[in-house]
Each structure stands twice: as structure tokens, then as C-alpha cells.
Amino acid sequence: MRQLLQRLNNNSLYMIIGLLIFGKGLGFYLNRRFFFYPPQLAWMMNNIYLDCSMMIVGIALLVYTCSRYNSNKLLGVLLALVVVLLAIISSIEIEHVIFAHEMEFVQNALSNMAIIAFIIWTARHYSKR
């Protein structure tokens, strides 16, 4: 138990990223009508597979953070998946801002881009201990 707490303390940034992407995936999973424009593609943008993949990647990152296993390649793949999923969500939100004139999505898109920058910085400067 002591080693687990030490690993969580040493790798708190990865735990935060894992919880964040899991929470975003859960939020999108619970809100099935979040994206609406264009109406013909709303089913694709509110796809359950995207939501579940966000939750799975978040859980995988949390499990990796808690485990003794240490692989920069696996960590890079998990962080890259998080960035790709957030980039997809950000592009959909920017599309809503530009074409549907829904200014509420500006804050979401900007916060997602800030999170992407944080993850890229973390991947560059921080390795699992």
C-alpha cells in the first residue's frame, strides 16, 4: 500500500490526466445530445464508441500509473491517444462555434486545447518514476 501511494504521489500528473479524460468520456456518455450541428451528423459526433474509448484510455492510464510496470513507449501511446481524442472533441466544438454560432463551445474548445498543451508538455518533460 505504501508503494502504491508513493507511485501515485510521484506520478500525480498522469493520474490527473487519466481522471480528466475518464471524466470527459463519462460526461459525454451521459449527455447523448451534446453535439447537434450539423443535424445529419449528430449521431456520429455523439457516438458512444468515442465516449467509451475516452473512458477506457483514462482507466488504462490510471492502471498504468498505479502499476509497477514502466515503459515510456506505452506511456507515449496512452498520452497520444488522450491528445487525439481531445483534438477530435476540440475540432467538433470549433465546428459548432464557426458554423452553428454557438459561443458556449468556445470555452470548451479553449480548455481542451490548453489540456492538450499540458499533456504535450508533460510527455516531453516528465517520465514515470
TrEMBL record:
The keyword Transmembrane applies. This is Uncharacterized protein. The chain crosses the membrane at residues 12-30, 42-64, 76-99, 105-123. Keywords: Membrane, Transmembrane, Transmembrane helix. It comes from the Bacteria. It comes from Lactobacillus crispatus.
